[in-house]
């Protein structure tokens, strides 16, 4: 599933469909190596949680690498940075459940909540980092999060959510991260479908979904309340077969 080279986990296959995102080949480096078992993270589909009961892990965590990004585990030392980025009204305007102002307590709550949900197989979360060539080797700048949440084992389904620091918007990073997650999830797990939602005023988020091949499946009218107004929410989805078809199409082109 998830290969390891030295300490770096890499996706098992290079996928040309990602080229379309920035016109260049996005490298998801191939590695033929032993499966990795991370302490606390199930890699074989079944994981014992703290309570001793077994949770089915449909999406085991795997560190991912693209041409410009490293998608790694969120760590405690990231939290002060996440507070700086998320304590921003413009960023959280269309995000569900992110308080403003955003504090260290909120960041700690989030990390603990996601750790618990990860143990139960409900969430798979990545910290999005720039593989910055100006930094020392092995270091990277943390710029956002991406997660598959509401993982539904019975229906082999999950929902994606993401954010990027405002200083880094419109560089293609959210699209690159989302495509990497699709590549990993559809290429390495039994997930059949991924969904995503955005309030229709959040045009940039809709573009990210469309650039990554998601299709609009419906409109939830006046579904979310923001600043006293009820906003429409668009529902997007992508099937494993649709992602595979995009890959095949891209292979034919390049
Ligand atoms: C939505 C968000 C994740 C996009 O991240 P990003 O890294 O800037 O996304 P990308 O650069 O990959 O793509 C954004 C696309 O939307 C376009 N866009 C952004 N704002 C736009 C607007 N107001 N109108 C039209 N297009 C817009 C960009 O031009 C780009 O398209 P292009 O590549 O064709 O030029 C980021 O703005 C964000 O974190 N917002 C706050 C949190 C949030 O809304 N999360 C999603 C919840 S559903």
Overview of this structure, please?
- Strand 5 (64-65) and strand 6 (69-72) form a beta hairpin.
- The chain is an alpha+beta fold and 254 residues long.
- The strands form three sheets. It has an eight-stranded mixed sheet with strand order 5-6-7-8-9-10-12-11, sandwiched between helices. A two-stranded antiparallel ribbon has the order 1-2. A two-stranded antiparallel sheet has the order 3-4.
- The two termini are 26 Å apart.
- It has a domain at 18-191: Aminopeptidase, CATH 3.40.630.
- The chain is built from seven helices and twelve strands.
- The chain binds coenzyme A.
- Coenzyme A binds at residues 91, 94-95, 162-164, 169-175, 198, 202-205, 207-208.
- Residues 91, 94-95, 162-164, 169-175, 198, 202-205, 207-208 line the site of coenzyme A.
